[in-house]
Amino acid sequence: MTQAALTVQDLHLSFLTDEGALPVLRGLSYTLSPGKILAVVGESGSGKTVHALSILNLLPPNARVDQGKILYQGKNLLSMKSSALRRVRGRKIAMIFQDPQASLNPVLTVGEQLIETLRAHKRISKKTARKQAAELLTKVGIEEAEKRLEEYPFQFSGGMCQRVMIAMALALSPDVLIADEPTTALDVTIQAQILRLIKELQQQSGMAAIFITHNLAVAAQVADEVLVLYAGQCMEQAPASRLFSHPLHPYTQGLLGSLASVERKEERLPAITGNPPRPGEILTGCPFAPRCSHALKKCFETCPPLYEKDGCKVRCFLQEGK
Amino acid sequence: MRRYILRRLCLLPLVVLGVTFLLFFLTQRLSPEMRASLYVKDPRQMGALEEVIREYGLRDNVFKQYGRWLVQVAHGDLGYSPSANMPVAQALKKYLPATIQLAVVTMILVVFFGVWFGAASAVHKDRWQDFIARFISVGGFSLPIFVLGLILLMIFYGKLGWFAPGGYSIQTDIIIHSSAFKTYTGFLLIDSLLNGDLRVFCDVFAHLVLPAVTLCIGSFALMVRVMRSSMLEELNKDYVRTARAKGLREYRVIYKHAGKNAIIPVITLAGIQFIRLLGGTVIVETIFDYPGIGRFGVLAAQQLDIAGILGFSLMVAVLFVIGNLFSDILYMAADPRIRLE
After folding, report:
1. What is the pLDDT of residues B236-271, one digit of tens each?
2. How many angstroms separate the CA of residue B151 from the nearest CA in chain A?
3. How many domains are contained in chain B?
């Protein structure tokens, strides 16, 4: 087996609040294979964005990693010195965010922001950096790149800003791209364009990507593999085609069952009843048990382990021994 | 941009007309005799009051009198100021540069230290740097300026003898009034350098230190607060996270990215504070016996020197409009989203 692009091992993370530490991630583990796209899907509050931020240690000050490792090329990113981590950020692991317009600095030109990214990691002249910046913009489908380098983010539309963010993330040909809900703030038509662009550039460069989304349709469109996150734990991880055709976990089944479909004629879409546990709620059994129609007695008593079978992982007693 | 500046400058006469007419109208509340008595220097000439009233047309309609004053101003004659014992124009020319000099030095201190302390305070929130900055800013804010001025004067002049009050020393007075010393701008700090006389420069600067520091501490407090809260807000924004994610060095993230955004409200505040300093440094000028325009204005008001008051307000109005325009232009330079149309 080839070396993993990124490995997350037993990641525990909590938010420090006035009411004490609220656990957000409870032992998340996964492996990202080189050149593959892993979609991490979950409801809001499931910890998917926090997990993405923890990879490059961009967490807000009130978040604390309690336990676990994030390994990149054999080194633990979580215990890396800030100067070493800085050289990984942007160069080896790059990130794009949810709100592209807010994610670009409003008072610096797009060119300045691209050029500084290049020059933070490469010893090149401003002129060379400028040329490369223009090439990057062209690559992400922005016309008249030379001219647009001079412009400020507010002169770009949301979709164009996300293209700039993508150009910035790809500037140093990273090994891993982390995309945190990159299309959530965009129109549906623009969404499709951006997804296609990311997928295309990912295939060209052969980098691995983690795609954070709450949108199953988005995950289906781009992912090679899907990880379903619920209350800070992995519920199911499987190759995308397998997960969408044969979901094993009742939660995944519920999520897929609640999708609108042209073939179905029901008046109301089925929804999963109840609410996800609040952060910090003490969970003894399976976090999904209270909402699960298949729940057994033991589901409320102990949390099921992740059962592994043919490259799929499921956290459910129903899969025990199967 | 050029059109915007021109349009704003067109506003200038309107503001000046408004301010001066308002003041002119208020002075009409005084009887013609009271106003005429200002022109009489010798009590024995009091009998000639009626003559003075007739000569200056003090019983005329207010618009007629105001119009006459305007024509006079248009010819460059602001009248004679009894309180300063010289023509108003000459008094303004004499006192204004000293105040502008003081205000500029003060603002440089305020902006430099305010931005620095405010940024450090935000970056090291709830650590010792933050506590020091907050302590100084709350202290400076609550300490009355005249108390602070007197304390500084007591320590640095009374005990240490370093910084004397006044605008300059007697030796300097002799030098600058000698024929060898050429006046180019009226600003002694600049003129002394142009004359190549470092002694005068140092002397004038030494006399500026205490009033500038006193004024600075009052304005500095607000500047630190504005910079701190603005910086805290910017540091939490998404683009700061992006800058970190790109692998930029931390000082670049803080100063280039967050700092450039955080400075925008500071520019507005600095503009307001600068204009306020130009017209309102009277307490400090009095404490340090500094020959500035604020003292001239207050003296004119106390002695009912109408020509002096009108001249002073005219100048403040002009400075106000120009100062605002200047801070608008700076504002635009700092924030590309703002287009002046």
Report:
1. 999 999 999 999 999 999 999 999 999 988 988 888
2. 42
3. 2
